[in-house]
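>> Question from a student workshop board

For tomorrow's exercise we were told to take the sequence and the ligand below, predict the bound structure, and bring the output to class. My setup keeps failing. Could a helper post the expected result so I can at least see what it should look like? The ligand is nicotinamide-adenine-dinucleotide.
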Amino acid sequence: MRKVKVALPVNGYDITIGKGLAEELEKQIGEHKFSSRALLVTDSNVGKLYTEKVKESITKAGLQADVFVVPAGETSKSLETAEKIYTRAIELGLDRKSPIFALGGGVVGDLTGFVAATYMRGVPFIQLATSLLAQVDSSVGGKVAVNHRLGKNMIGAFYQPKFVLIDISCLESLPKREIYTGLGEIIKYGAIYDEDFFRYLEDNTEKIQALAESSLEHIIGRSCEIKADVVTQDEKEKGLRRILNFGHTMAHAIEKETGYLRYNHGEAVAIGMIGAANISRELGLLKDEEVQRLTALIEKLHLPTKAEGVSLEAMFESTLHDKKTVNGIVHWVLLDRIGHVSDITEAPDDVVKKCMRMVLAE
Ligand SMILES: NC(=O)c1ccc[n+]([C@@H]2O[C@H](COP(=O)([O-])OP(=O)(O)OC[C@H]3O[C@@H](n4cnc5c(N)ncnc54)[C@H](O)[C@@H]3O)[C@@H](O)[C@H]2O)c1
Ligand SMILES: O=C(O)C(=O)C[C@@H](O)[C@H](O)[C@H](O)COP(=O)(O)O
Ligand SMILES: [Zn+2]
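>> Workshop helper replied:
Here is what the output should look like for this input. Compare the format with yours to find the bug.
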């Protein structure tokens, strides 16, 4: 078992990474003074596989948990679904110390965290991350949100969990496409923060795809360390944390323009990273061979490099509503080498459009 600390001055917490964490869940619940009524939110895929086991640990810890199941998929990350969960919470009489557990991927985590942050102005929240993407990114750092039809994660908060459990044995049931989706965000960490990690990914693509335990532990652990390091320095994205948004300006546009259905988040991020790397090269910040290196790794890990079903105009317009855009100036996260983000964040419209064209399928 490995622990990574998110050492925030207030509301810090541990991420526990291991296999079969039932006893750990019971133990960590016992370390908090929660009310005895709890809610467990999960989705229609994960619920069938893991609810009973998790409920057993919660019960052993002396709590009674009701289960709320949302339909699997990004469309559940909505105010409508949140409203249904609030209703259930009120009906069950959940109080200010009632914990809400998120058992699932990033959709369940973001949605449940948003409900926990707002129900009675905040109740304890626990992340039990089951997808690779959730285990390396969404369960850590406290960004919680729902989507709006006009934009991704538009309604949300910063709200840290009490603890995060990452049971890597859950990945055995995760569809292959979702493994690659998680790898999109993992590549991001190497690209923005750690060239050695990027090289590890390049050198171990086969082991990673075969879900070899040692490489899984390494890539999940290192990703959590990098995210924890960034978030600890800048919890509410005043500056540094924006680097975690590398590739996301175009990614969110792709997700929104395709109705949150065609591309998984990590797939859209892969395309967006290539777009941002091309802007970096056009501005003379990044060598062409570095752009090729990033693109090659993305391709090797079966992620898309071009978006279908998105027009240049729509993509360009969408980026103006990005959360990092201020006074109409888009804040681009650009690279000056693999493993390092540039201080330059502005790019002329013609360069942006040229690079958008490169990642849009005809
Ligand atoms: N809060 C953050 O910091 C942050 C970071 C990155 C992404 N996100 C958000 O996370 C979401 C994407 O997360 P995701 O990729 O986990 O998607 P997801 O939650 O939809 O999970 C992907 C699919 O895998 C299934 N699944 C999950 N775990 C499983 C398991 N162990 N076995 C079998 N099936 C399993 C789910 O039911 C779903 O069908 C997006 O909404 C994205 O915006 C948030
Ligand atoms: O934690 C962060 O900060 C991130 O930006 C991580 C991203 O991978 C994640 O997709 C996040 O939800 C994006 O946030 P947003 O505020 O740009 O919607
Ligand atoms: Zn992301």
